[in-house]
Amino acid sequence: MFASVVVNLLALPPLLLLGVGLISSRWANRSVETMQQISQLLAGFLFLTALAGIGLLATSGPVDHLFGGPFRLYYDSLSAVVLLLIAFVGLIIVRYSTRYLDGEASQGRFFQWLLFTLGAVSTLVLSGNLIMFTLAWMLTSLGLHQLLTHYSERPWAVWAARKKFLISRLGDLFLLAALGLAWQTFGTLDFSGIFAQCELFRENPSSQPASIGLMAALFVLGAMTKSAQFPFHSWLPDTMETPTPVSALMHAGIINAGGFLVIRLSPLMTLSPAAMACLAAIGGFTALFAGVIMLTQATVKRALAYSTIAQMGFMMLQCGLGAFSLALLHLTAHSLYKAYAFLNSGNGVQAAAALRGPTAGMHFPGNWALALLPAGALSAGCLLVSFQSAGIDLEHKPGGLVLGLIMWSALTTLLWPALRLAHREVTARAIVAAIGVSASYVCGFLLFDAVLANSVSYQLLHQHSFIIAMIATCCLGFITLLFLQFIVATHTRNRYLARLYVHAANGFYVDIPARALTAQVWGERSATP
């Protein structure tokens, strides 16, 4: 009885949220207070049902429930984590928007499409088959397009929405093609049926159809378009004219849909090592590419946009290496951080001043290389102690050595400035922070690994020469980025670095073809608004 009630409750909030999209925008703008009340009630209802769903999962286990036709609910630990994340972030954004948009003539329409988009994303997470998933995928794009054009009088807002529209339609085509192949290959589009057949193919590889590789590649391409992976990333930094709550929703929720797709379909994706390796390579390149550009951006929002692209690239790298639990940990932590960062972006100047602390006015004495050696050693020590204390063997974890190296470079970047500063208090703080970060990373991994134990498929990548070369190149790239940061910090007047800075600040000009295509499709003479 309890299970049946909770299952119906889980399905109700997304339906109500989607139903708000049917309301007249004119009526919504005339009834602002009513829309605000509806928004807070429905967002709160979604959050409460997400909490109730966790109780259902703990008592009854995963749920695969058919409502009728293509409407099927698939609720497992992956759905539970992501739905709770969406509901929590959505509730905060709704409450923030009430104050942020106070007094605007079109705020009723804004709440209408904000709720619709939350409903579409929630439906996507709860989908039990590829038809429902693809429909929710498209509805999410529709809702986001309406939010991006909230300030339709701003040329850049319309321009960014048009570019995003084109990339989203390309992603829809990839997903529809993959859906057709899935029906032809499996004879069903239900996740439970697809996953059961994938396990049979894993046990008997000779029976695996050749279409699996192409299907996985199409899903990878679809995920790349939704999660702003190179070369489909250029729309995200152009969305600066949209309201801040929309930016928070995009960066903390919607853009995770590509990663969720790959994690959800992990039993299928791991059957194609080539698709997984390509996903890892593209994700690693995107993380490096966007990370360099992020360091050169002059505005907070553009820096956060490229930070999101880089973090999504890192998440895709984790997925491509088969580290799905780490990818979900990354997705969750990044979403919470980005929601806070965007909603708190107005306080950036005050926060920067407060962070200076005891380092204000100090210089950095000594040789940077001499500080790098102890920083690297301390970082390695923190990680080794944390991993060994938890009984984690990196060699037998998907992508363990690669991700361990990246974590080492991150901790080294944290410790190096403090050691070079040669200030006792700052050094002590940095060491404590490094220990805390490494311990939190390991604890988070253990938690999410246990949570996802029955929801994803883990498989080490085959030791093929291409895969080995890809992993080696990825490691070399992250080490190069580490040293580049140190060189930039110590050689500020180098002419080659100055040239690199100019090119990076302009995104290495890779968005020019996307702008030209957008102008051509909409019949514009200029590739800029």
UniProtKB/TrEMBL annotation:
Q: How does it sit in the membrane?
A: Multi-pass membrane protein
Q: TM segments?
A: 6-28, 40-58, 78-98, 110-139, 173-196, 208-225, 245-263, 275-298, 304-329, 368-387, 399-419, 431-453, 465-489
Where is this protein localized, as stated in its record? Cell inner membrane; Endomembrane system; Membrane
Tell me the keywords, alphabetical order: Cell inner membrane, Cell membrane, Membrane, Oxidoreductase, Transmembrane, Transmembrane helix, Transport
Q: Where in the numbering of this chain does the NADH:quinone oxidoreductase/Mrp antiporter transmembrane domain appear? A: 127-348
Q: Which InterPro entries does the record associate with it?
A: ND/Mrp_TM, NU5C-like, Proton_antipo_N, Transporter_DabB
GO terms under cellular component: endomembrane system; plasma membrane
Q: Which Pfam families match?
A: Proton_antipo_M, Proton_antipo_N
The UniProt record lists the keyword Transport: yes
Gene Ontology biological process terms from the UniProt entry? ATP synthesis coupled electron transport; electron transport coupled proton transport
Main site of residence? membrane
Say if the entry is tagged with keyword Oxidoreductase: yes
Domain NADH-Ubiquinone oxidoreductase (complex I) chain 5 N-terminal: start-end pairs:
70-111
| GO MF annotation terms | NADH dehydrogenase (ubiquinone) activity; NADH dehydrogenase activity
- PANTHER family (UniProt xref): INORGANIC CARBON TRANSPORTER SUBUNIT DABB-RELATED, NADH-UBIQUINONE OXIDOREDUCTASE CHAIN 5
Entry similarity comment: Belongs to the inorganic carbon transporter (TC 9.A.2) DabB family.
HAMAP family, alphabetized: DabB
Q: What exactly does this protein do?
A: Part of an energy-coupled inorganic carbon pump.
How this chain assembles, per its entry, is:
Forms a complex with DabA.
Q: What protein name does the entry list?
A: Probable inorganic carbon transporter subunit DabB
